[in-house]
Each structure stands twice: as C-alpha cells, then as structure tokens.
Specification:
Layout: E1 14-16, H1 25-33, E2 38-41, H2 50-68, E3 77-83, H3 90-99, E4 104-109, H4 114-121, E5 126-131, H5 134-143, E6 147-151, E7 157-158, H6 164-174, E8 179-182, H7 188-197, E9 201-204, H8 206-209, H9 218-226, E10 232-235, E11 243-246, H10 247-252, H11 276-283, H12 300-317
Parallel strand pairs: 1-9, 2-3, 3-4, 4-5, 5-6, 6-8, 8-9
Antiparallel strand pairs: 7-11, 10-11
Helix pairs in contact: 1-2, 7-12
The protein binds flavin mononucleotide (FMN).
C-alpha cells in the first residue's frame, strides 16, 4: 500500500514523537529541517491561544528555509492531540490545526471522534493514532484513522508492555496502511530493524531530549547521558497511566523508585489547568529504555546525520 504523499519524501523513515514540555518550536523546526517529521503536543502551547502563534511561526520559518534551500528535504509537522474528557482544549486545538492545515495529527489515549477525523480529512490531512495494544489498534481503525503508531515496551513516557515483534506482527495481519513503531529506538540500526519487522517508520522520542534544541533543563539532558536501561522505572504513579521515567528524578523527588505505590486512575487529567501531569513531566523525567545508547548532547541536525550514517552502514552490513 502506497504511503500518504506527506510521508513520502523524508530524509530518513523517522517521525520525531511529541513530548510534553520538551517539544517546542525550536525542536520541531530543527527536526523538520533535518528532513524528518517534527511534532509537538498541542498542550505544550500555553495558554491555548499560543497554538496559533506557534503554528504561524513554525510554518513561516519552514517556508523561508525551503525557499532558501530549494533542494533540501524538509519534513512535515505533526501536532499531537490528547483525546480524553479531561482535555478541555481539544475542540479549540483541532480548529486551530484545521486553520493551519497541519498535515499530520497524532491522536493519543482514546480513538479520535468522527468530527475530528472529518475535520482533518477535509483539507487532506491524515490522523495517526498511538496505541499500545491490538484491541486499541482495531478500535482506532474502526473509527477511521489513517495510520497507527505502535508503542511497544521500553518507550519513553506512556508506554506499553508488548514486544515490538508481537505488536507489529499481529497488526500487520489486518492492517496494510502506514505503521510507525516506537520504543527505545535511538540508532540507525534500530530504524532499519523497525522496517525489517514490518513497520514503515521509526517513531523516536527520548533521543531528542538529549539534543541542544529540546525544551528541558540541562540536568535532565545530563541524567539521560548518565543513565542506562536499568535506571528507567515503569510506573503508573505519576499520571494514572503506566510510563517510563528516570530513577534519578524519582529519587530527587524524595521517593523510593523500587517501592512505588500504584496510582489512582480516576486522577488522570490532561486539561489546560495546572494538572498533576505538568508536575509529573517537569519534575519526574520521562525517558525510554534506550537512554543507555545516548552518550552525548548533539544538535538535531548532527543527530539525524549520525542516524543516516548508521542506517546506511546497517543496510550495507546486511547487504541490502
Ligand atoms: C518526556 C516525554 C514526554 C512525552 N509526552 C508525550 C505526549 O505529550 N503525547 C504523546 O502522545 N506522547 C508523549 N510521549 C511519548 C512519545 O511520543 C513516544 O511514544 C516515545 O517517546 C517513544 O519512545 P522512546 O522515547 O523510547 O523513543 C512522551 C515521551 C517522553 C519521553
């Protein structure tokens, strides 16, 4: 099945995933200029009116870059929408994305409602939905999404528990459309393996935290550089949904990462107010198990060049 036009001309088969707080205009612009899909959660633009400002600024900057570099591959932008009753900005944020004709919408948590899908499809946009299970994948496809993001074990932020082999393999039995795979992908070799497994794209998050353009404090970058997979804890304590976090930040918050209580799911809140999520992501640092592969803090452009070289070397090694 042919990929949607908007995903056909990337410099690498990579979608940079949206990350709460960390993905701001500087990171997104650098990702797109490096030829991959750049993304951010709509909720990062606060207050809500800021979303229009961000999109205007990012689109103008990328248009100017394209005009100055006619031959360059410039990736499209994607905006993440959290589909949950506590997100009181959803209708507003979708409307702003429609106004800017954002080519890719990434929906997470619940399957997107029909009105949202119709609104995005009305201008030729596509919706990729993020899932951790086969059941959720089927529900999203029934709702009418255009593609799936499969979040396997080891991913940063809210993550699943399934092996990527099981997840991609089962989904490919019933879905031939666009599939992105995530969970600890941090090298060119891993991008190629995602494709070998049957995915079209690698969906990469944590690796961008340890870049110069991420909107995080230096201590967070440093903690990623110093951590390995054993320093990542999987818990639902901080948001009500299971996710992966750096042990170091949990200790700094005065908690014992090896003895964390379970969370109360009814406290989930993804609204525009001062939610517990904001605190969670600001003080308790999300990151996937791939942190052991991140030993420095390059710029996004340098990182994408490195991924390209590793990807080409892996292809050569396997004589592809
Ligand atoms: C700090 C952090 C914040 C995140 N915030 C969001 C978010 O707001 N919305 C979302 O859909 N995914 C979010 N994610 C999940 C990523 O989009 C993606 O699934 C994950 O980072 C991929 O795994 P990796 O980090 O191992 O590459 C977040 C991940 C991290 C590490």
């Amino acid at each position: 099945m042919a990929l949607p036009q908007v995903l056909q001309n990337l410099s690498l088969p990579v979608i940079a995933s949206p990350m709460f707080i960390a993905s701001g205009p500087a990171l997104v612009k650098a990702q797109c200029k490096a030829g991959i899909v750049g993304s951010f959660p709509a909720l990062n633009a606060r207050p809500a009116e800021m979303l229009d400002t961000w999109l205007t600024e990012i689109q103008a900057d990328l248009a100017a870059y394209k005009a100055e570099h006619p031959g360059a591959k410039v990736g499209p932008i994607a905006v993440n929408q959290i589909v949950h009753q506590s997100n009181d900005r959803l209708a507003h944020d979708v409307e702003v994305c429609v106004k800017h004709q954002v080519p890719i919408i990434i929906s997470s948590l619940r399957a997107p409602p029909k009105e949202m899908l119709d609104a995005v499809h009305s201008y030729g946009g596509i919706v990729l939905h993020d899932v951790i299970s086969i059941r959720h994948a089927q529900k999203a496809l029934e709702a009418g999404v255009d593609g799936l993001i499969l979040v396997a074990a080891g991913a940063g932020g809210h993550a699943g528990t399934l092996s990527p082999f099981a997840l991609v393999g089962e989904v490919r039995k019933f879905f031939k459309g666009p599939v992105a795979l995530s969970g600890s992908i941090a090298t060119g070799d891993a991008i190629l393996s995602a494709q070998a497994m049957g995915a079209d794209f690698a969906y990469i998050g944590s690796r961008w935290l340890a870049t110069k353009e991420s909107n995080v404090e230096d201590g967070y970058r440093q903690a990623i550089v110093e951590s390995s997979a054993a320093d990542v804890v999987y818990t639902n304590l901080f948001t009500g949904v299971h996710g992966n976090y750096l042990k170091k930040s949990i200790v700094a918050a005065g908690l014992d990462p090896d003895n964390l209580p379970a969370a109360d799911k009814s406290k989930m809140n993804f609204g525009s107010g001062g939610s517990s999520k904001a605190k969670a992501w600001r003080d308790i640092w999300g990151a996937g198990q791939g942190v052991g592969l991140m030993d420095d803090v390059p710029s996004v452009a340098e990182m994408v060049e490195r991924l390209k070289a590793e990807y080409a070397a892996a292809r050569k090694r396997l004589a592809l």
